[in-house]
Amino acid sequence: MIDFVRLNYKDKDTIEPFVCNKDNFEELLTVLECHSGEIRYPYKANIGNMEVGINDKYAYVKNSIHKLYNDLKGEEAHNHNDFKYSEVCTAIDHLKKKLTDLENTRLTQLEFGLNIELPSPAECIIRQNIILHQLKIHNHNEQFGGKGEYKQFNHYNYYFKIYDKAKQYNLKKHVIRFEIKHKSNKSFHPLGVYKLQDLKSKKCLQNLFDDLLKRFDELTIVDSVMADTKITKKDKSQLESYLSYNYWGILSERENRNRKPKEKLEFQRLLVKNDLLKTKTFLRASLIQKFEELLNS
Fold first, then answer.
1. Alpha-carbon distances, residue 67 vs 15, 38, 47, 290 (angstroms)
2. What confidence score (pLDDT) does residue 166 get?
3. Distance CA 291, CA 211 (A)
4. Cβ(101)–Cβ(95) under 8 Å?
C-alpha cells in the first residue's frame, strides 16, 4: 500500500539538536570546510533506509516505509512483497520512537500502490494492453536495462506508474504494480491525509485506494484487437483510430471538442460489444481484492 513518504518539519530547531545527539544517531554525515574546519549543512542521518536531512532552512525525513518495515524484519530493503495494514502501523510507530516532534511534521509527498499477481508476464500486459491514461499516451516507457516494462503518465499533482515488479526483482511469479506518486500535498489533502499518523487511519487508506481505483478506471486497457478474428473489419478500423493518442489529441482541439464526448461513448460501446475488456475487468477485481486483503490484516 504505502511506499515512499516525505515529511517536512515545520520547525527544524527541535529536530536538529536531537539528530546531532550521539545518543540518538551513532552516525551523522556533514560537510566539513577543509581550511577553516567549519561544519556546514546539510546534515544527514539514517533510520534504516529512511533518510533524515537537515539544511539551513528546514528538516525532512524521506524514503519507503515499506522497505523500512522489511529492513526491521532483517530482510533486504525491498518492496515487492505485500505490505499489510498492521505492518504499515508498525513502521510508522517505529519512526515515531526513533524521531522527536513527529506530530509537527507534514506529509509533502506520498506513494500509494498495490502489487498484483498475474497468470502471465506483466511486461506483456503493460506493452500490449495498457494503452492510454485519460486518452493520453505515457510520458515514460522504460525497460530498466532489461528489468521489465515501465509506463508512467505525468499529471499536474501526481504520476501514475505501472511496471513489472517481478522482473525488477527477479521474482519467479508474475507481478504488476499500479502506483500513484502524489507529487504535492494538494493531491492527497482532499483525501483527508495531512500527517504520517493519518496513514494509520483505515478511512484515509480507503480514500487513497478509491483515488487509485479512479485513476485505474481512466486507463485504456484493451484486449488484443488484431488477433480477434470475430471482430468485423469496420469495427477494427474504428478501434484502431480510438486506440491512437493522436486521434484524441485532434479531438481535444477547440473546434472538435463537441465531438469528443460522443466518440468516447462510441469507443466504450465498441469495447463492450466486442468483449475487449476482460483484462481490465480482471485487473480491477484483483486490485479491489488485494486492497481489502491488506487492509484487514
1. 23, 35, 11, 19
2. 86
3. 13
4. no
**Which grid cell is 269?**
460501446
Q: Are strands 50-54 and 130-133 parallel, antiparallel or unpaired?
A: unpaired
The helix-helix angle for 85-98 and 65-72 (nearest 10°) equals: 80
Q: Using alpha carbons only, what angle is made at residue 224 by residues 222 and 230, rounded to the nearest 5 degrees?
A: 115
Q: Do 67 and 169 contact (CB within 8 A), yes or no?
A: no
Supply the mean pLDDT for the chain: 93
> Domain total for the chain?
2
In terms of domains, do 284 and 272 share one? Answer: no
| Cα–Cα distance, 109 to 94 (Å, whole number) | 19
- Kindly report, residue by residue over 167-208, the tens digit of the pLDDT: 888 888 999 999 999 999 999 999 999 999 999 999 999 999
Domain span at residue 246? 224-276
CB atoms within 10 A of CB 229: 5
Residue 163, burial from CB neighbour count under 10 angstroms (0-12, 13-18, 19+):
buried
Picking from 63, 287, 64, the residue whose alpha carbon sits closest to that of residue 177 is 287
| Same domain for 267 and 200 | no
pLDDT digits (tens, 9 = 90+) for 25-70: 999 999 988 998 899 999 999 999 999 999 999 999 999 999 999 9
CA distances to 62, 113, 117, 149 from 161, rounded to whole Å, are 19, 9, 16, 11
- Pair 166, 268 in one domain: no
- Spatial distance between the Cα atoms of 102 and 116, rounded to a whole number of angstroms: 33
Distance CA 147, CA 88 (A): 27
User: Do 26 and 114 fall into the same domain?
Assistant: yes
Ramachandran angles phi, psi of 111, nearest 5°? -115, 135
Does 218 share its domain with 229?
Answer: no
> Average pLDDT of 254-264?
86
Coil, strand or helix at 287 = helix
